[in-house]
Specification:
The chain has about 325 residues and is of the alpha+beta class. About 40% of the residues lie in helices and about 20% in strands. Bound molecules: dinuclear copper ion. Dinuclear copper ion binds next to loops.
């Protein structure tokens, strides 16, 4: 009788474990792996999944067995036997989860410490998050700025994150770790890309009406392409440089303003700020608003160059087509 119960429990647990392991293994759950840091994070993920499968199989086996064996028969109005509990089992079901959670905690601390440690001298990128756009500055490359995060492959980059207004959070799923950007506090994140390509860069902290649109791209280039990019940007005077000092006003608009403003000719549909189709302000007022912000809009003075602001004003007021 006793032995029969134990065999039944083990069989049910193995069946449940097999099913859940199959679901974990055969479904492609995780995004493509594109950074060295992801390796430790993925390992941690799968260790945690294995622990979860073990606990779930034990709980499911006991629940299913008890539900089938001890269910009330029809017309049985009697009380169950008085049971006082089982000290031995209670110690086991306290001790085992304690050990498993400790394993997860220690492994997490090791992975975090490893991932905070750049390989060699990292490239520094200053990240500024604000409602609702990202800006990346490369202080070692002459302070060039970009609204996409350009990274060289196989070299550690250390992001220095800051927020202008409220909490935001930096996340590229293919790179793994998230990191908050907090006003008044500097946080850091090390990324060592292992694959060239373009990846989604997402704000993953609810930061206001435009949160869902606070997205841009992380672009991983070969070392040579990255060097060429920084050189071109340094010569062209920032992201807007198209070679001959030509400023791409529409590009500036879509990179900085799209999350909040609708403007048909730029193809943007944000609804956080005013619709800019049929804007009735004069150039001086528009420039003032862009530079100083106000009414919920952040200031762009110092973030965009004077030439970029002028181009944007011209683009919005149509004073030059
Ligand atoms: Cu920034 Cu959500």
């Amino acid at each position: 009788m006793r032995r029969g119960a134990i065999v039944a429990l083990i069989v049910i647990a193995l069946i449940v474990a097999a099913i859940t392991t199959g679901i974990a293994y055969f479904v492609d759950w995780l995004p493509e792996q594109a950074s060295e840091e992801r390796q430790g994070i993925d390992l941690l993920f799968w260790v945690t999944v294995a622990i979860c499968i073990f606990v779930f199989a034990v709980v499911a086996a006991v629940s299913i067995y008890a539900g089938v064996t001890f269910r009330v028969r029809p017309d049985d109005e009697s009380d169950g036997p008085p049971i006082h509990g089982h000290t031995g089992i209670e110690i086991v079901w306290t001790a085992v989860p304690t050990i498993l959670v400790t394993v997860i905690a220690v492994l997490s601390a090791v992975v975090l410490a490893q991932n905070d440690d750049p390989k060699g001298t990292p490239l520094r990128v200053d990240v500024l998050a604000q409602q609702y756009a990202w800006q990346f500055t490369y202080p070692e490359q002459g302070g060039i700025k970009a609204t996409n995060l350009y990274l060289p492959i196989d070299r550690s980059t250390k992001l220095i994150l800051n927020a202008r207004d409220v909490l935001h959070s930096f996340w590229v799923p293919e790179f793994g770790q998230k990191q908050d950007a907090v006003p008044g506090i500097v946080t850091t994140l090390v990324i060592t890309p292992t694959k060239t390509g373009e990846y989604r860069l997402i704000c993953t902290e609810l930061c206001g009406l435009g949160h869902a649109l606070m997205r841009t791209r992380a672009i991983v280039l070969s070392q040579a392409d990255f060097a060429a990019w920084t050189q071109k940007q340094a010569q062209g005077g920032g992201q807007a440089g198209g070679g001959g000092g030509e400023v791409d006003a529409k590009g500036i608009f879509t990179a900085n303003c799209a999350a909040c403003h609708t403007l048909t000719k730029a193809g943007t549909s944000g609804t956080v700020g005013p619709n800019l189709d049929g804007l009735s302000l004069g150039p001086a007022d528009v420039e003032e608003q862009i530079r100083k912000g106000g009414g919920g809009m952040p200031p762009f003075e110092g973030q965009l160059s004077d030439a970029e602001i002028k181009a944007l004003v011209q683009y919005l007021t149509g004073s030059n087509g």
